[in-house]
Amino acid sequence: MDRRVTRKPIGILGGMGPEATILLQQKLMAALPNAKGDEDHIPLLIDMNPQVPSRIDHLINGKGADPAPVLSEMARRLEGAGASALAIPCNTAHHYAGAIKDAVGIPFLNMVDLSAAYVAGLKEAGAFVGMLASPAVRLTRLFDKALADYGKKTLWPSDDDKMLRAIQHIKKEGPTEISVQILREASDELAERGAMVQLIACSEFSLLSPSLQNGAQRCIDTLDILVNEIVNTSATLAK
Question: Quick one: fold of 112-222?
Fold first, then answer.
C-alpha cells in the first residue's frame, strides 16, 4: 500500500529578489531528506516577478509605484492556477500582506508572524530580539508589532546605510565577503547591546546565513521558519 502524502501546491510570490526565491526552493528540497522520488517533494507554483515595484523606493524613499496592486494580482494568478496557500520569501513585502490576503480566499503563510511566535518560544530569548533586516522593515515596524504581542522588543543595527548597502551589494554582486563583514559587524553590535537571539529577516541576508552562525549569539533565519511552515501546510492541506 502506498502511504506517500499527496501534497498540495503552494503558491510563491517570488522575484524579490530572484536569488532568494531560488534559495527558498533549495531549502524546501533540503527540508525533505527522506524523499524517495520526485513525487515526495512539494509542488510549487512560483510567480517569479522581479518587476514588482521596489519596496525600498516606496517605503524608504517615498517615491515609485505601490507594490500592493502587483502583489495582489500575483496572488490571484497563483490562486487561479491551483495554489492551496501562498507564501512570500521577502520580509519587506509582508508590509502588503493585508492587500494580498484581501485579494484571495486561500491561506497566507505570514513569515513575520511565524518568526515572532518561534522566537517567543525560545528559552534563551531575552527581552530583546536583534534584527538583521532592511531599514524598510524597521520603518514599517512589522517585527516590532509582531514581537510586542509576546512582550519582546526589537534591537536594530545603528547604521541603516550600511545595511541598505549590503542588500544592494548582494542584489548586484551576490553573497560576497563585503556583505558578510557588514552583517557580522551588525550582529556583533546587537549582541553587545543585549540581543543574543537575532532574526535574519531579509531574504538577501538569508544567502549569508551560514556565515553568521559562528558567534556567541544565535541567528535564526526567517526563511527557514517559512520553509517549515510550507512543508507542514502542504501536508496538512492534503489530509
Answer: Rossmann fold (3.40.50)
Name residue 208's amino acid: L
Query: What is the C-alpha separation between 168 and 31, in angstroms, rounded?
Result: 29
CATH architecture of 10-110+225-237: 3-Layer(aba) Sandwich (3.40)
**Worst-scoring range by mean pLDDT, 43-47, 70-74, 143-147, 171-175?**
171-175
Average of per-residue pLDDT across 83-106: 97
Q: Dump pLDDT digits (tens) for 166-183.
A: 999 999 998 999 999 999
Active site residue 202: yes
Q: 0.85 cut: is pTM over it? A: yes
Catalytic entry in 28, 86, 90, 119? 90
Choose, from 75, 132, 186, 202, the residue flagged as catalytic: 202
**How large is the C-alpha radius of gyration of the chain?**
18
